[in-house]
Amino acid sequence: MQKWQKQISCQVAVALFTLGMQVGPASAQGLAPGEYKVGFITENTGAIASAGQSFWNGAQLAAEDVKAKKYLGDASIVLDPKESASDAARSIQAMNQFIADRSIIATTCCVLSPVAGALKPIVVGAKIPLVIFGATASGLPQPPWIYSMTILPGPKDIATAVKVADALKPKTAAYILAADNDAFKGRMAATQKTMEGKGVATAGVVSVLTKDTDFTGAATQAMGLKPDVILIYATQQAAAGAITALRDRGYKQTIVGNDVLSPAAMFQKMGPTVVGVPFPVSFSASIADTPEAKAFVSSYETKFKVQPDIYSAQGYQVVWFIAQGLKSISGAPTRESLATALSKITNIDHQVYGGQQIKDGQAETAGTLVVNWSADGKLVPWTPAK
Amino acid sequence: MDLFLQQLINGLALGSLYALFGLGFGIVFATLGILNAAHGTYASWAAIIALAAVERLNLPFIPALLAGIFGGGLLALVVDQVAFQPLRRRAGGGMISALITSIAAWIILDSLAGTATGHQSLSFPRDSYPDTIFFVGGIPLPAIQIITVLSMLVVTVSLHLLIRRSRFGSAMRAVGWNQTAASLGGVNPRYVVVITAFLAGATSGFAGVLGGISTNNVSFHLGEGLMLKGFAAVVVGGYDDVRGTAVAGVALGVLEVMTAQYLSSGLRDGITYALLLGFLLLRPRGLFGSAGFSRA
C-alpha cells in the first residue's frame, strides 16, 4: 500500500471513529426508550365524579397523543389508575401503593384541596413527583416535588366581577357563598374587597353548604337584600341550585357565576336559567382557536363523543407537563431526575390555552375571557343585557 | 314580613318533602320492623325513572310522575323480597341483621344509580313540569311548591285512613305487632308485607320525583339528603302515626329554613339533629307515637 493510501485510510478511520463517538453520545442524550408509568388517582365515582371523569379523559387522551406524535421518541407514558372517589383516606392508600411501586415515575391527583393537602407531606417525604389536576387552594405546589396544572380561578373571578361592575355600575352586591369551602371563601373575600374598592357596597352574604340540595331559602334571602347584582361562590351543584332557585323566584337582575358553570353538562342541566350568567373561562371547546386546542377538541370529541371542558383540558395538560419533563432527561429517568426536570420548566410547550407558564410550580394562563351560555348552548363573550 | 312569609312557604314546601319521604320510611319501620338504610335509594331511583320517562318516552308530567312512583314501589318490593324476606324466614334474625342487609342494598342501589346517571347531577327539563309562579300579595308561589304541599297532605290523609280505618290497615298494624299472632287471626303476613313494602317505596318515590324537580337535582345523592331528614321526621313525629311524621317533617323544614334565614346556615342541620337527639332521649315515642310502641 502506498504511503498516501495509508494516510487516507488512517484519516478515514479516525473520521469514522470520531463520527461514531459523536453519534453514540447523541443517542444516549435522549430519553431511554420504554413505557413510563404515571400513577393517576382517579375520582370517577363519588360526589364529583362528573368532573373527575373529565380530568381522567383528558389525561388518557394526552398519553395517547404523546405516543402517537412520538414526542418522547420510542418512549411513552402509561397511566396507572387507582380510584379514590374523592375520599382522602382512599387517596392516601392509593398514593402509598404508587410510592411502593418503583415502576411509577410520577403521580397525579386531586380535585379537592383538602385531599391534595393530605397527600402533600406524603409525596414530599417519599420524594415522588405529584402533579395536581384540579385542587384550587393556593400554596399546594412545592417544587421540585409538587406542581399544579389547575388554572387558579381567584384572579379570574376578580376580573369578571370588575368587568361586570364597569359595565353595569351596580350600587350593591349580594354574595351567595359555600361557607364550608375555604377556597370559595377566599375567592369571595378577594372579589368583595375589589368590588367595595370600586364603590359597590355589600348588601349581604348568604351562606349555603356544599351538600345542600334545596336553595329556595337562600335565594329568597339573597333577593330580600335587594341587591343590584348577585355573585355566586359555590361548587358546581350548589351554584346551579342557587342560580335556578333565583330565576325560579323571578330574579331578573344580573347573577355572576364562576368557572364551575363552564362544562357543557351544566348547560344541559340548567338550560335557560344559566343563559346570560357571566363567568370566567380559561378553556372552552367552542372558543378554542389555536391549532393545539382545535386538535385537542377534535380528538376528544372523536374518542369520548362529548366536548372537552376545562377539567378535561387540565387533565390533558398534566400528562403533557410530565412528558415535557421526561423529554429533557438523558437516559433512564428516576423520580428525582424527573422532579429536577419539572422544576426547570417555565413554559409548557404543548398546551391548549394559547399560552401557559409555570411559576413556583403553579400553572398560569394570561388574560381572562368572560363568557356566558347562549340560548343555543354555546359559550359566547359576555355583554351586558340591553 | 314578606320575607318571613316567603321563607315560611319555602319551609312548608321543603318540610312537605321530608314528611312525604318520612311517611314511607315510617310505615316500613312500624309494620315490617326494618330500619331500612336503602330507603333513600328508592327516592333516587324514582326520580331517575321519571326523568327517563320524560326524556326517553316523552311522557308528560303526570304519567312520568306515576312511572316514578310505581318504579319506587316496585324497587322497594324487589328489595324486600330479595333481601329481607329470607331474614324473616329465619327466627331471631332481628333488627341488626335487617339493618346490615339494608346497608348492603343501599350501597348496591346507590352505585347502580350513579352508573345510570353517569355520576352526574341531572335535572328535569323545565317544560316537563308545571313551572308557573303564582303571586299572592306580591309573594311568589312556584307551582311545584304548591303541588308538593298538596301531595303531602293527600298522601298523609290517605295513609292515615288506610292504616286506621280499613281492614288492610288493621292487618298492617297486626303484622307490625306480631306476625305469628296476626297469622293465627287470619291475616296473610306475606301479603301485608308485600303491599306495605310497595306502598313505602311508592311514597318515597313520590318524594323523590317532586324533590328532583324542586331542587333541580336528579342524582344518586338525592335520596341521601331525604333519608336523614325523613328519619328525623319519623323519630320526632312518632313511629306508628303518620300524622306525627307529617307534622314533624313540615316542622323540620320550616325550622331549617328559618334557622338559615335568621340565625346561620351552619346551624341548620345542627338544630335538626339536636331536636332528633332530644326526642330520642326525652320522648322516644315522638309527638304522636303510642306509649306502648316498643321499637324506639
Summary keywords:
heterodimer; A: alpha/beta; Rossmann fold; five-stranded parallel beta sheet; four-stranded parallel beta sheet; 14 strands; B: 296 residues; mainly alpha; two-stranded antiparallel sheet; 2 strands
Could you walk me through the main structural features you see in this protein, from its secondary elements to its overall organization?
The complex is a heterodimer of chains A (386) and B (296). Helix content of chain A is 45%, strand content 19%. Chain A has 386 residues and is an alpha/beta fold. Chain A folds into 2 domains: 34-152 and 288-365, Rossmann fold, CATH 3.40.50; 154-257, Response regulator (Rossmann fold). A 5-stranded parallel β-sheet of chain A has the order 2-1-3-4-5, sandwiched between helices. In chain A, strands 7-6-8-9 form a 4-stranded parallel β-sheet, sandwiched between helices. Chain B has one domain (16-227). Chain B is built from 11 helices and 2 strands. Chain B is globular, with a radius of gyration of 19 Å. Chain B starts with a helix and ends in a 14-residue tail after the last helix. The model of chain B has no long low-confidence stretch (mean pLDDT 87). The chains are: A alpha/beta (386), B mainly alpha (296).
